[in-house]
Amino acid sequence: MIKRYLLTPGPTPVPPEVALKMAEPIIHHRTPEFSKIFSEVRGGLQKLFQTAGDVLVLASSGTGAMEASVVNLLSAGDRVIVVNGGKFGERWTKICQSYGVVVEELKVEWGEAVAVDRVRAALEQFPDAKALLVQASETSTTAVHPVEEIAALTRTRETLLIVDGITAVGVYDVPMDRSGVDVLVTGSQKALMLPPGLAFVALSERAWKRADKPHLPSFYFDLNRERKNQADNTTAYTPAVSLVFGLHAVLEMLEQEGYENVFRRHARLAAATRAAGAALGLKPLAPRAPSPAATGLYMPAGLDSGKLTKYLRDKVGVSFAGGQDHLKGKIVRIAHIGYFGDFDIVTAIAALEMALTKFGARVDFGSGVAAAERVLVEGLPSV
Amino acid sequence: MIKRYLLTPGPTPVPPEVALKMAEPIIHHRTPEFSKIFSEVRGGLQKLFQTAGDVLVLASSGTGAMEASVVNLLSAGDRVIVVNGGKFGERWTKICQSYGVVVEELKVEWGEAVAVDRVRAALEQFPDAKALLVQASETSTTAVHPVEEIAALTRTRETLLIVDGITAVGVYDVPMDRSGVDVLVTGSQKALMLPPGLAFVALSERAWKRADKPHLPSFYFDLNRERKNQADNTTAYTPAVSLVFGLHAVLEMLEQEGYENVFRRHARLAAATRAAGAALGLKPLAPRAPSPAATGLYMPAGLDSGKLTKYLRDKVGVSFAGGQDHLKGKIVRIAHIGYFGDFDIVTAIAALEMALTKFGARVDFGSGVAAAERVLVEGLPSV
């Protein structure tokens, strides 16, 4: 008998009360009942995104909303700057290139944040760049890029700032309107504690102006059509009704908790995980700009992290993410995004301690857990 | 946001696949569909109870099956011997006395097993005792009584052995037929990983002979009527249909795991919990005969365990059981029965370490978890 623990940075665990909400009888989407829920969801999403503008709901994965940002704002032959510091930076490049958009890449070492000076230099070198595309949190490297500082550079220029906030929105403070982000994207299976299947995208006023003429060919991801429909509390095409039910419940939960507390929750679990990693002598992948969504840790030299994560998943029941591309076999990524609690971190670290031992590493049992507990206990309510 | 962990010795957690099974559409119970499931359940219960006889399914809590044992086998004025070493031993006495059965109590200090010599002496002192009633595992004190050794004494006498196996059956080896237990009782919310609501009772051949004439007044708990009905794969009164669906799934899971592995699983988690308690310097409640179902630990002197368990439940999300009667405020009981895994023990111990600190006790963070890990890692599959 194996109990399963999903400790990956997406999909993430779904709270039981949300799962029950999604199990409610399906209703038709062209009804006042659905529109009422959808209207409340729209309001909640504005708070989540910290924007006065529309946050559009798409039935797609986060990549769909990334693509929607590109096809509604760019044209073939346009030049863009892409910050590529991991698999998802690379994804911006691939999407743009699929449509003939010319990409100037700022390659960033995996695990590092892009230097603001490099961004400034690129904006000066390519003043015709129609957009700068970046991740807020680069899930593949567990590093964050300095989006607010980048926004301070783009908001006075013609270059739009398009941000993949998939493991950032609802994890830590990304004040869209206040900082001047032009496009912000997220997905349902991260901080929103839902199954995958919904994506969200919000545009600034100047981005909507840029989107008002047809750009790249697309039917499904036509954001003007969606915006018009969603203003009437409906969607252009069939929405993922059950996921919208779940989203309704989640937004209510998050507001009840208060977004400041939500951000504090993620920061605390991240700090505990990093402390545990340090106590175990595991080198962090993103020491200078660690994401509050997940923590990447190098495994001891010679230990294949792919084998370790497979062992943990298949034989112990604990799922971590591994590394991709040149980090394959070298790291594990432990998530703390969404419906994670103190004892998920304790579980993750205890599982890691035991698995490392099984793979021949020298581990002082309990030392990682102790370091995590020392951080966690500080945030526990008083007696 | 608080994630909830139910780490009490009943109710216990329900596996998600079982919960989904119980959420299937309800069917009528007087149908071939229900009878087919019920017939398979009856076969599975015989393996669970290690008996060739009927195991009857009752829609009641475990106490209902305890009462059924009394009312079908005893008469007012009969003398019985009750081993009373905790709340559930006391319950045997109360049930018997409610019906005018004369109870000779063998009082046992809480946390101790009854001495076999005392049982022998009582059987010799009261050769007219119609039954000896005992717990296999006394949940309130986390101690086990030596049922097989007691059965060796009763099976050659006229005194029937009636055993409350509520936190024993499916937890460790209780070979009913082989050891000569006359009545064995259990409930759904323990090793069977189900919600409360079902109870089970099996009788030996000589117990059925004793039950063939009317005894104490009862309508609902008439085991002869149930036996007749259940032989036809139906029940005398409306069965708890969804729970029977769940039971069907659970019995299949347990058989697939193999009962030897099930017993080993419980023993391993119990050993890890005891090791953690020892490492934390917490005195065990049942050092000589610890139950594989739950571990009782004394809290440090002056620390109110009731306040600690309330704090953990309400503010941290972790539910332990406390102590009852004279142990109230003195102990916590950590369960490892049913759908428990390694990381439930890790969670329990980490929660205890942090809570003890919050209540002013001196705790070496991670020391209990380390001791648990040292036991658990031995049982993990090889790489």
Describe the protein.
The structure is a homodimer of 383-residue chains. The model of chain A has no long low-confidence stretch (mean pLDDT 97). Chain A contains 14 helices and 13 strands. Helices cover 43% and strands 14% of the residues of chain A. Chain A has 2 domains: 5-11 and 258-379, Aspartate Aminotransferase, domain 1; 16-256, Type I PLP-dependent aspartate aminotransferase-like (Major domain) (Aspartate Aminotransferase, domain 2), CATH 3.40.640. In chain A, the strands form 4 sheets. In chain A, strands 2-10-9-8-5-3-4 form a 7-stranded mixed β-sheet, with helices on both faces. Chain A has a two-stranded parallel ribbon with strand order 1-12. The first copy, chain A, is of the alpha/beta class. The longest helix of chain A is centred in the last third of the chain and has 21 residues, at 259-279. In chain A, strand 8 (160-164), helix 7 and strand 9 form a beta-alpha-beta unit. In chain A, helix 5 runs parallel beside helix 6 (147-154). At the A-B interface, helix 12, helix 13 and helix 14 of A face helix 12, helix 13 and helix 14 of B.
SSE arrangement:
The structure is a homodimer of 383-residue chains.
Chain A: E1 5-6, H1 16-22, H2 32-49, E2 55-58, H3 62-73, E3 79-84, H4 87-98, E4 102-107, H5 116-125, E5 131-135, E6 137-138, E7 143-144, H6 147-154, E8 160-164, H7 176-179, E9 183-187, E10 199-203, H8 205-210, H9 223-231, H10 241-257, H11 259-279, E11 294-298, H12 305-316, E12 318-319, E13 331-335, H13 342-358, H14 367-379
